[in-house]
Structure formats: C-alpha cells, structure tokens
Design a protein that fits this description.
Shape: globular
Structural class: mainly alpha
Distance between the termini: 84 Å
Oligomer: single chain
Largest sheet: 5 strands, mixed
Strand order of the largest sheet: 2-1-3-5-4
Helix content: 55-70%
Length: 502
C-alpha cells in the first residue's frame, strides 16, 4: 500500500472506500431491476432473451404447447455469432427461480463488478493507490458503462475476462511463471470464446505485456509465451472451426462487417469518433488520450499504447459495426480508466499538497470527490426511473392477440420485430426500412415492391409510424387497397387477403 495515499491513508480506509464504491456500483445497476430490458439496445437484449426462453421451454413443465412451439421456433430462427453462454446461464436460472428477465441483469452487473476487481489489481501494477482508485471509480460509474453493464448481452462477461487476462499477463511480465501464463491464457481464451471480437483486445494487451519485458526475438523463444498464446487461441479457433466447417452457421455471420470503401470516407471516421464520444463524451475522450502522456513507467505506456493500437485495428477490420454499434467499443472503458487514473492522479497529488496544511481541507477534498460519485449515482438513478417500459409487454401481447398468433404476417415494426416475438408470441417477416437497399433505383415501383414482398402474406402490421411516414405513398397504398383488420392505440393491421377492389 502507498504510504502517501490521500484517498485511503490506511487499510481500514481502503476497505471502506472499496466497499463504498462497489456497494454504490451494485446498487445503481440493480435500480429499477424488474423493468423491461428496453433501456439499452433493446434489439440485442431481446435477441438473447428469446434464446434463453427457447432453451428454458425445451424442458420446462406446465407450458401451453402453442407457446412452447412458438418459443422454439423463435429460438432456432436466428443464428448467433457468439456461443450462448449467458443465455444458457439465464435459462438454467429460470428453472430454479422462474422466468424473470431481470435475472440476466443481475448476472451482467456482477460480471462487470468482478471485472472492476481485476481492473483495480491491474491498475496497482502500473499506478499509485490513489490513481488506481480513480481508475476504478471511472470504470464503475461511467454513465454509459452503467447502462451497458446491466444489459442482457455477452459484452459485460467478455470485458470481465479481458481485464482478468490483462492482469494475469502483466503479472507474468513481472513474475514469469507458468502459473501466470496459464491464468492469462485461460482468461483470454474464454474472453474470445464468449465473443470473437475480443481477440483484438486480448492479443494487443497480451502483446503489450510481453513486449514490455522481452524483445520480440526473446518472446518468440520463450515457451511460456507460446503456451499463453496457444491457450488464448484454442477455444475461439475451435468454436470458429466448428461453426464454419461442421455446423455451417458461422460462415454467413462474418459477411457484411468489412467495407474497404469506408476507409477512404471521412464521414466513417466522424461516425466512429461519435460512437466513442457517446461512451465517454468529447471532453473525457480528450482527457483519456492526454492521460497516456502521464503514465510514469515504460511498461504501462507500452501496454496501453498496444491496447489502443489493437482497438484501432479492430475498428478498421470491423469498420461497419464500429461506426454503427457503440457497444463494440465497450472494452475501451477499462483501458480508458487506466489512462484517466494516471491523469487524475496528478490532480489528486496537487490537492493533497494543498490540503496537507489543514485537516478540514483534506476532508473537504475527499467529500467533494464523494459528492461527484453520489451525484452520478443519483443522475443515473433518475434516468432509469424516468421511463417505465413495463406497459410495453401488455402492448405487444395485445398486438399478438389481435393477429391471432398466426403465420403469414409482414410488419413495419420496431427492433426487428423482437418485442412482438417475445411478448406477443408472433413471428413476422419484416417490411424493409427506407435505408434498406430494397429501396434502391432498381427496386421498382411501390406496387411492384409491395406485390413481391407481401406474396403469400395474410396481414400487414404497422407499429412504427415514424418509419411509415418516411416511406412515401405506403400508407395511402395500404388504406386505398386493403381493409383494416384491427386497430388500436399504437398499431394497425391490414387484411391482405381481402383487397378492396375485389
């Protein structure tokens, strides 16, 4: 422990600060626990929810047969790039505690907090105790991170394993032993297994840790480095081989992720920067990059610059998703927390020098830092409680009832139709949005598109009226050619089986 720590001058103070930080971090993530998972990327969260329910309904007793069949159809309808580890864990928990979507929120929150433990340990390898506490505070209380880390998707688990792997790799660089090499390899390998894109963050972090101690030539001659690399690569490589060459469901999932023309488009880089700024804000992003200059050791600079280089390579290769999906940059949060901790340490040291003159000034500074954490907690709490998504379940159930849970439905609806699938028990074919290539120059007239896309369909459902207004002439065409089958607040269903002109 640092003898000159300002924020935690003794062991009891450190225990109190850590307990306070982790207690508040868990409390804010469990706020509004039972609300529906629609506050953060609802499409991605409901995708996992549908998978978990399908797994659960395979063996659950007392389920109406039509619901079981609907759940299993939805479960098998969409392939996934990642192995459904969290989905399986949630499904297993359903068997013990009942089907409650908020169970996933608890797991994701705990994964992120465990990642915070590893981040603090990693920070202590590079930074002072005060700087490590600042890094941990940013990691736990970054507003975007709070929302992302309670979401039903594999990313919180992936980040936890990435940070655990980083810490073990850095420990190996300090104390080369097979124990640390194996720990790093296992954590990194499972991170990549959880989500294959983790390879960029794991490889760059491990590379930075190794090269901070050894030259490239020395590293290539070190058996422990090869063992670490093998363990890291094996799980993801095995899963990819199985998914591509055995089961065949992964091949198509790798398409549509790299577009070389984007690399010469300046707007691509602006959109990319916009996604990072959505996570941190422009000011914090600038301070994060500035913080790299305040790292005091060669090892920490090599490690973090390597991680940022890996992130840049990741963004170039997955250029479509990095500029359209903000949570693809989520693993940047722990790296940013480390560099911001180094920058914040300069401020804390300056405050400590000023406060050393009197006891009340020391406590004033500490209370101001605590105030910033508590107010962040309160602001996020207000945001979580300001919107109640629970009525959405009843709405989509009503729409499903109006459709009669029948096949042959095409829909202009939100979030890829997943809310309707989950709460309405209704699988639909999606009517394309304006931005889709279906509306290109060769798509034909509205009547031609409509006939082609609705062939064999019984109903046309509309719940996304903003998108309907963007599609010139579609509402007029529907109301001019087909009767309304059912209508309610927030939806309208047209009966395609009884055209008005017949």
């Amino acid at each position: 422990m640092d003898s000159k720590s300002f924020l935690a001058p003794n062991r009891w103070a450190l225990a109190f600060v850590l307990a306070l930080l982790f207690g508040l971090a868990l409390g804010i993530r469990l706020t509004d626990l039972t609300d529906l998972p629609l506050d953060f990327h609802p499409t991605r969260q409901l995708f996992s929810a549908i998978k978990a329910r399908g797994m659960y309904y395979q063996t659950a007793a007392g389920i109406p047969e039509w619901q079981r069949e609907a759940a299993l159809r939805a479960y098998t309808a969409d392939a996934t790039l990642e192995p459904p580890l969290l989905d399986s864990l949630v499904a297993a928990s359903y068997r013990l505690f009942g089907e409650h979507l908020w169970i996933a929120r608890i797991y994701s929150s705990l994964f992120w907090l465990i990642g915070g433990i590893f981040l603090f340990l990693l920070a202590r390898e590079f930074l002072s105790l005060d700087e490590a506490l600042l890094s941990l505070t940013l990691y736990l209380f970054l507003p975007y991170g709070i929302f992302a880390s309670r979401s039903f998707q594999p990313d919180p688990l992936m980040v936890m394993l990435i940070v655990a792997g980083w810490w073990a790799a850095v420990r190996w660089s300090r104390q080369p032993a097979w124990t640390w090499a194996l720990a790093a390899g296992l954590a990194g390998g499972f991170a990549i297994f959880v989500k294959l894109t983790a390879v960029f963050f794991v490889a760059s972090g491990f590379g930075g840790a190794v090269l901070s101690r050894l030259s490239l030539r020395q590293a290539l001659k070190t058996p422990q480095v090869w063992g670490m690399a093998a363990l890291t690569a094996l799980p993801g490589a095995a899963y990819t081989f199985y998914g591509v060459y055995v089961a065949g469901y992964l091949g198509s999932q790798f398409s549509g992720r790299f577009f070389p023309e984007l690399l010469i488009n300046p707007f691509f880089y602006l959109r990319w920067e916009g996604k990072i700024a959505l996570i941190f804000g422009h000011v914090v992003l600038a301070l994060t990059l500035l913080g790299l200059l305040f790292l005091r050791t060669r090892e920490s600079r090599i490690f973090l610059l390597s991680v940022w280089t890996g992130y840049a390579l990741f963004g170039v290769i997955f250029n479509y998703h990095i500029a359209s999906h903000d949570y693809y940059s989520l693993p940047l949060v722990p790296a940013a927390a480390l560099s911001l901790g180094a920058l914040g340490g300069v401020t804390v040291r300056g405050l400590a020098e000023q406060a050393a003159r009197s006891v009340w000034m020391r406590w004033l500074v500490r209370l101001l830092l605590l105030f910033s954490v508590v107010m962040t907690f309160w602001d996020v709490r207000i945001r979580l409680l300001s919107v109640d998504y629970r009525p959405q379940a009843a709405f989509w159930a009503q729409v499903g009832e109006a459709l009669g849970h029948q096949p042959g439905v095409i829909a202009l609806t939100q979030n890829y139709g997943y809310p309707l699938v989950y709460w309405g028990w209704q699988k639909v074919t999606l009517w394309p949005e304006v931005r889709s290539q279906v509306f290109g120059a060769r798509a034909g007239s509205l009547a031609e598109r409509f006939e082609r896309l609705t062939k064999g369909k019984r109903f046309f459902l509309v719940t996304d009226f903003e998108e309907l207004n963007r599609q010139a002439g579609l509402e007029e065409y529907l109301r001019g050619h087909y009767p309304v089958y059912a209508e309610g607040e927030g939806y309208v269903i047209f009966d395609l089986s009884r055209p008005l002109n017949e």
